[in-house]
Write a structure and sequence with these properties.
5 helices; 73% helix; mainly alpha
């Protein structure tokens, strides 16, 4: 049986707060730190977390407004799109994952992605 990852819960909470502050790179970093152990253990939540990491970095690309930004943002967002369906009732920290996915969806609408 997998043990609960309390660092992931804290990371998700911080991720949500950083998204609200438009600190997308920092939001990405906070989750990435917790994603590495999930990836190494082949944890069932690893892909959902990776999708949220890429969801945040997508909006960092837009924030920095570099050359070819829309294409780059859409490319990075594909990971979120592939994995958001993994946020289902019953998973560890479901409410936080659901809220994170909803925030990414709202940002997509704001930025017309």
């Amino acid at each position: 049986m997998l043990r609960k990852n309390y660092n992931l819960k804290v990371a998700l909470f911080n991720y949500l707060n950083l998204l609200d502050k438009k600190k997308y790179f920092e939001a990405h970093e906070v989750l990435e730190k917790e994603w590495h152990p999930l990836r190494k253990k082949n944890h069932p939540l690893k892909n959902l977390v990776k999708g949220l990491i890429n969801g945040a970095i997508c909006f960092e690309h837009i924030k920095r407004d570099r050359k070819d930004v829309r294409r780059k943002a859409q490319q990075v967002l594909k990971s979120f799109e592939r994995h958001k369906h993994l946020s289902v009732e019953g998973i560890e920290n479901f409410k936080l994952f659901k809220e994170a996915c909803e925030k990414i969806e709202k940002l997509k609408k704001v930025h017309q992605l």
